[in-house]
Specification:
Length: 256
């Protein structure tokens, strides 16, 4: 049902972004994949998705920490019916030891990039009379954890931006929502495990069970396919009146 629609997914050469791209393509959407790298592997990935799903897939390099590159990503895409703001990074440290440059990078990539891409995408969506903005926030867009000041601030910020986007597009065939994943075992999470082992003086298994999934009552990681399925649902007619809200896919994290 997404045949003829173009989806731009930021940060989509890995993890959740790639999972979302796969599910949107499976539903028929053409894709623009993105990351800050420009490796042969990135272009191979685009070809692989095109072959697998029979849709058009382009890879456009753009660094989501740079406002002009966020904007030019959408300009180069040319059309953008579905915008998935997914690019994100993490850094874990107490506030008084948190490197200011890490704070700036997380705010830029995890939050401000969505403002810049959305600003350029909305006129294209209005022209098409249809559009979907799907922001990948986090359970940390609704709750907090120690040592993740920049990430929690950015994710709360993108939830706020989602609401404003919904209000400014209401009644125009455009919706804006945020998906709030709990823990999904992707590279961003894998990279946190050694830091958490050090901080908590625990084994890998104990960090996963007692620190990460301790907040996730289901006791299981969520999957990238589940994030993709939720994004596809938000693009379906059943979701036409769902706008300005968050959908938690977190195994019960935010119910605790
Ligand atoms: P990941 O590290 O696998 O993917 C992050 C993606 O962002 C990669 O494709 C990377 O290339 C891209 N990226 C990083 N910096 C970029 C930049 N400057 N410009 C362009 N692209 C850039 O991690 P993930 O788990 O797939 O995370 C994706 C999103 O989901 C993030 O916003 C993250 O905060 C969010 N999220 C993840 C989890 C989880 O448990 N994995 C939970 C909640 C929210």
């Amino acid at each position: 049902f997404l045949k003829g629609r173009t989806a731009v997914v930021t940060g989509s050469n890995s993890g959740i972004g790639l999972g979302v791209a796969h599910e949107l393509a499976r539903a028929g959407a053409d894709l623009v994949l993105n990351s800050f790298t420009d490796d042969p592997a990135d272009h191979d990935l685009a070809k692989q998705l095109a072959d697998e799903h029979g849709v058009q897939v382009r890879y456009i390099q753009a660094d989501m920490s740079k406002p002009d590159q966020c904007r030019s990503l959408i300009e180069k895409a040319g059309s953008c019916d579905i915008l998935v703001n997914n690019a994100g990074i993490q850094h874990v440290a107490p506030i008084d030891e948190f490197p200011p440059e890490k704070w700036d990078a997380i705010i830029a990539i995890n939050m401000s990039s969505a403002f810049h891409t959305t600003a350029v995408a909305l006129p294209l969506m209005r022209k098409a009379g249809w559009g979907r903005v799907v922001n990948i926030a986090s359970a940390h867009g609704l709750t907090a954890s120690p040592y993740k000041s920049a990430y929690v601030a950015a994710k709360h910020g993108i939830v706020g931006l989602t609401k404003v986007t919904a209000l400014e597009t209401a009644g125009q065939g455009i919706t804006a929502n945020a998906i709030c994943p709990g823990y999904v075992l992707t590279p961003i999470v894998e990279k946190q495990i050694p830091d958490q082992m050090k901080t908590h003086n625990m084994s890998r298994e104990d960090v996963i069970a007692k620190v990460m999934l301790q907040r996730q009552p289901s006791g299981d990681f969520a999957t990238v396919e589940q994030m993709g399925g939720t994004a596809v649902f938000l693009c379906s007619p059943a979701a036409d009146q769902i706008t300005g809200t968050t959908i938690s896919v977190d195994g019960g994290w935010t119910a605790l």
